[in-house]
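Q: What would this chain look like folded?
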Amino acid sequence: MNTFSFIGYLKPIKDTESRKSFTTKYYDSGWMSERLVFRVICGDNSQLVEINAGRWKDENKNVIYGMTKAENDKKSEPFQIPWSQRNDESMIEKMAGWKIFTVDLDTFNHRKELEESGDTEALAAANKKRHHFLAGTEFCEYANKVVNSEKIKSVKFRVSGNINYTYSEKNDRYYSVYEVNKICRVDEDKEPDSHVTIDFYYTEGAMDCEDYDETGKAIVSGYTQFYDNNTKKNWFCPMTLSMKLGTDDKGKKAIKGWKKMLDKFDEEPVRRVVFDCQQINGAERTDITYDDLSDETKEFIDFGMISLEDAIRDAGGKKFGNAVQEFSISGFVRGFAKGSEPTEYTVEMLTMKPFKEDSTKDIFEDEDEL
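A: My prediction, written as structure tokens:
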């Protein structure tokens, strides 16, 4: 499962005829669905995320399907919660953390300060700002109020969840959705961040260093696994990651190390690694160089009237380039310190597109006689 954790400011999208920030749909079956779409502004990156949930209009038909916490050597087990008990503290306490939706309007550090000060009244008030939900629709509705509130425009949050993938047979295309399950306020001194983890499967020759000498960047092509609801099976979605290493001695050393790891194959055709990445989704910021300066400033530098470093600093040091959307690898997640691991998958398994098995297939071979 690929995950994301974005730190930034919440911003509702502008409603258009084709897309609304918050929508509710009702179906003849009695089912209703809700969808909230908004952005997280993480410095120079603008990340589009959403919440999707549904329930029966007839509340008597609704049940919460949960998983217990895995603790004291006990494995997590499935259990059901009646709709009328969905907000009971005992049920929330029983539920595994990853199955709980959360909106927290106070910070961890503020609560810690209140605990240390012994101000129990203020701590109780701060704890009331943490809202847990077991019903996705109630989480979606409350998050909609928060995202559209004037009070949080200058408040920084960590928005986290899972990256889900789907395949459209009609368009022959894969789509990704960033499904939010937690929205938690963070301290204002927290730096903007666009962190994602990618469960990555690859074959021989995955790393492309052809443009490295010119750009300082390498490309890694492979696949990530996803569950398809239509076929009720796991499949693989193709994806491309980038490595921004630079062309200095440190970068050249790094590219050799990455290439050695990614080129390591024994008899297995497919290997797996989970990467820490930064998701770039906005105008790329690059360092200003001599060529970017005005002709007048270049003359001052050439005559020795000003240094190149001072001129670049006066120009802001950075410039905005073209719009970029990519995953930039920053390292491995915990557990992969030794690099990638072998798998039992084949190249054919990675490249197959989701399809439903034909249930009407004749059970008799052509040569069988009745």
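The CA atoms of residues 288 and 313 lie 9 Å apart.
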